[in-house]
Design goal:
- Helices cover 32% and strands 28% of the residues.
- The protein is an alpha+beta fold.
- Strand 3 (62-65) and strand 4 (68-71) form a beta hairpin.
């Protein structure tokens, strides 16, 4: 899912980095990291989905650091 082609696209469109939330197996939401409320928005999307009864693949927010996908500590 998160292929090299995917990361090239993310790096090109979000040069200052991005937060990712893994909604379903085939669905990734990418949020521009430079937006001041990006992390809050990511958490709100996860919380709203949980409230509606939608299960996310993970309730963590991720970002890519040194080529690795890591959970963001808030």
């Amino acid at each position: 899912m998160l292929t090299d082609e995917f990361w090239v696209m993310v790096d090109r469109n979000f040069p200052d980095g991005a937060f990712l939330i893994l909604r379903q197996r085939d669905e990734v939401a990418v949020i521009d990291r430079k937006v001041p409320s990006a992390l809050i928005t990511a958490r709100q999307l996860i919380d709203m989905a949980k409230h509606r009864g939608v299960d996310f693949l993970s309730d963590r927010v991720f970002e890519r650091r040194d080529g690795r996908l890591v959970a963001v500590t808030e």
